[in-house]
Structure formats: C-alpha cells, structure tokens
Amino acid sequence: MASLNVGNLGEYLREQRRTAQLSLRQLADAAGVSNPYLSQIERGLRKPSAEVLQQVAKALRISAETLYVRAGILDAERDRDEVETRAVILADPTLNERQKQVLLQIYESFRKENGFEITDATDVTDVTDVTDVTDVTDAEDTAERGPRTADGSGADPQQTAS
C-alpha cells in the first residue's frame, strides 16, 4: 500500500504511545480498535476517521483536536482560533448561560456572513431571530442607566410631557 498524506500523524501517534509506555496492542485495546489497524495508522497506510482519532486520543489522554489537525481534518490556524474564541466565551464567569448563547449566535452569524463555515455548531441555533438581545443586559446596568424609551433615550415620555 502507498503511504497516505496524513501529515506526521503516524509518527506523532507512535511517539505519544511510547511516551505513555504503551505497546501497540495495549493502545489498540484501550482505544477499541484492532491492533493491525492501529499499526497501519502509525505507518501512514490508513487515514483514520475523526471517531477513531477521538478514541485514540482518549486512550492516550491527549487532545483529540491535536490529532485532527495532524490528520488534516481541521485547519490548524482558523479552527484553533474559532475553538479558542468559543472557549473564552463559554468560560467567562461574568456572563450567564443565555448571554453566552446569544454571543455565540452572533459570532456564528458574522462567520457565516464572512464566508466561513461553522465547524462545530453544537448548542448554536440560527441567528436570524435574535430580536430580544436587550434581555441579555444585566439588571444592575439597566438600573444604573434608568428606564429607556422606545427610541433608546433615557427620558421618560410621561415626565417630558409636563
């Protein structure tokens, strides 16, 4: 068989396996794949699916994303930036869950508008109906600014009529 163009995935897997002090058979058992199949992946003869890479990564206790990039499944720079942006949003302790979801929806809509496909759209719905973004603002912020009118000004229409 001819070697496939899967970057240096096989070499990297072999190095990680040896660092973890696992035999090929032990890693294959832990990952739930056959020993010959894992051997072919390490030698660059087979290109594994994302699912197999995820199982191997779990068995090695390494990042599946790293294996995806090495296998050419993910575009390293663009996808890493997207994953990092999503992670920062989701990890922000100052935002509640609703705020995080709305922010992710807006982020994804801008990516779509700029021609980038969504690589992981879990928990992100279509943004064409994000009409009620005002409920995302913090109650304290609203209290500090005071009530707003329909045009966005701070004056109360009943007070200005007198």
UniProtKB/TrEMBL annotation:
GO terms for cellular component: cytosol. InterPro entries: Cro/C1-type_HTH, Lambda_DNA-bd_dom_sf, TransReg_Diox_bact_type. Residues 133-162 are annotated as: Disordered. Keywords: DNA-binding. Residues 13-67 form the HTH cro/C1-type domain. One of its GO terms (molecular function) is DNA-binding transcription factor activity. Transmembrane segments: none annotated. PROSITE patterns: HTH_CROC1. This is Helix-turn-helix domain-containing protein. It comes from Streptomyces sp. R21. The lineage of its organism: Bacteria, Bacillati, Actinomycetota, Actinomycetes, Kitasatosporales.
